[in-house]
Write a structure and sequence with these properties.
Length: about 475
């Protein structure tokens, strides 16, 4: 099943997409990677959904990626036994460390780390910023605040501290349990939430095996101060605009989105743009024009993948949302201006033989009007290099590693086939031509450009480039 686009689609599974028929429909409509959101759902539910994705994968014969998204630390206020309270502008409101019952005068906050980080003048955002407080005085277990933005508060609303680095680990005890469970299932990607600095990624590396990739969610503005370091340590990046937009001013989010995408592209890391992309399709069969433009902008900017959250997990029109995103991406990539944007973003290859071969493959494919670039890879590094080049033709990746094929489902322009590695140059050409023809990535008499590493089966040794003309099986050996 060939996609007629390069940017990928990630869809979150949930109550609206929990049965095999729906998951199959979402995949057939355009989903490349399915997300299991561990902020919601039980382990039993995630296990069932994981099994259904693998069943659809086996039926379709195309590798599908599965992403386990860890919840991370969630800072929340306590409860209001008497029901919701309404805070007025200018009134005093006390935050007290612990589980003290809340009322109109104050509420407990069961996170000592919050009070360790507060100082007079700091802002406290409650309920995704709907209520805004300013700290006037504080101690290690108490903060006196003034209400700046009034509003209603109820049990367990979220708490954010913009501009404050909290002394808290990105991976909680719940995350460790969820991660162990997800690894046992056999997931391909793990997404880290609440990353504040590169140290959080380094700590997670000790928990994640080498055959599982780490996607870092950028949702804390403080992390943007060390963006290049974080990108360098990550296998992929997500622009998590929902949480990022709570602590950033709305007008700052678009510029930061573009900055993050540029940084990831420069480093050759896949980048995902997420949150509220087609939010109105939670309850409507068509998006707003602004949402369609938002999806298109992310594609023009060079994102590897776009993600649906509630739209596919809990919305009434999950399949329609995927179909709409697929249509928008295809339309953007047919726009002649899209190619100009892509070429403008082009990165210079590094001074390595692998980068030189990959850059040459792109140029040769465009010069000869080849149908596709066929890349042999074991670890996936060659495919990532090929995707970084953003060639005008599809990238057909042949790999003996099913795990690699599944991880690469997130990457721009890549179509993976799980197959045995080549045994020699003749087999390399024969296999590449046959699979390009069978998968629809080349037609008889078209040329393909092949890259591989010699000796075959050795990771990280891309050093060979070959041009071949595809023949019908009955026509004999390929040239």
């Amino acid at each position: 099943m060939r996609r007629h686009r390069s940017a990928k689609i990630v869809a979150t599974l949930g109550p609206s997409s929990a049965d095999e028929a729906t998951i199959r429909a979402l995949f057939e409509t355009g989903v490349d990677v399915f997300r299991l959101n561990f902020s919601h759902g039980t382990h039993a539910e995630h296990r069932a959904r994981h099994a259904l994705v693998r069943a659809v994968e086996a039926e379709a014969g195309r590798p599908i990626g599965i992403l386990a998204d860890l919840q991370g630390p969630k800072l929340r206020i306590g409860t209001f036994p008497g029901g919701p309270v309404m805070l007025e502008e200018g009134q005093r409101f006390t935050l007290e460390c612990g589980d003290a019952p809340g009322d109109r005068a104050g509420v407990g906050v069961p996170h000592p780390e919050v009070f360790a980080a507060l100082a007079p003048g700091a802002e406290v955002l409650l309920d995704d910023g709907r209520v805004r407080l300013r700290v006037t005085a504080c101690t290690p277990d108490r903060a006196e605040t003034e209400v700046v933005t009034p509003g209603a508060l109820s049990d367990h609303k979220g708490l954010n501290l913009p501009g404050v680095t909290l002394p808290i680990d990105a991976v909680t005890a719940k995350d460790r349990a969820d991660l162990a469970f997800a690894l046992d299932l056999g997931i391909d990607w793990v997404a880290l939430s609440f990353v504040q600095g590169p140290e959080d990624i380094e700590a997670a590396r000790g928990l994640v095996p080498d055959d599982v990739a780490i996607l870092t969610k950028l949702e804390k503005p403080g992390a943007l101060d060390r963006l290049e370091e974080i990108v360098a340590l990550s296998d992929a990046i997500m622009v998590a605009r929902g949480d990022l937009g709570v602590e950033l001013a709305p007008e700052d989010v678009p510029a930061q989105q573009k900055r993050i995408v540029r940084a990831a592209r420069a480093a050759g890391r896949p980048v995902v743009v997420a949150t509220q992309m087609l939010d109105s399709m939670m309850n409507a069969p068509a998006p707003t024009r602004a949402e369609a433009s938002d999806v298109a902008t992310a594609v023009y900017d060079g994102a590897d993948a776009l993600m649906l959250s509630g739209e596919s997990a809990a919305g009434r029109f999950a399949r329609e949302a995927v179909a709409m995103m697929n249509r928008i991406v295809e339309r953007v990539e047919r726009d002649p201006a899209y190619r100009r944007y892509v070429d403008w973003q082009q990165q210079d290859p590094e001074a390595t033989s692998a980068d030189a071969i990959t850059a040459a493959a792109r140029q040769v494919a465009e010069t000869l009007d080849a149908a596709s670039i066929v890349t042999y890879t074991t670890s996936g590094s060659t495919a990532l290099r090929a995707a970084r080049e953003r060639p005008q033709v599809p990238i057909l990746v042949l790999t003996p590693s099913l795990g690699t094929a599944r991880r690469l489902a997130l990457v721009w322009g890549v179509h993976c086939i799980h197959t045995d590695d080549a045994t020699g140059f003749t087999d390399m050409v024969e296999k590449a031509c046959a699979l390009a023809l069978a998968s629809g990535h080349a037609a008889p008499d078209q040329r393909i450009v092949i890259t591989a590493g010699v000796p075959f089966g050795t990771p990280g040794t891309t050093n060979a480039l070959r041009i071949a003309r595809v023949r019908r099986p009955e026509d004999g050996r390929r040239a």
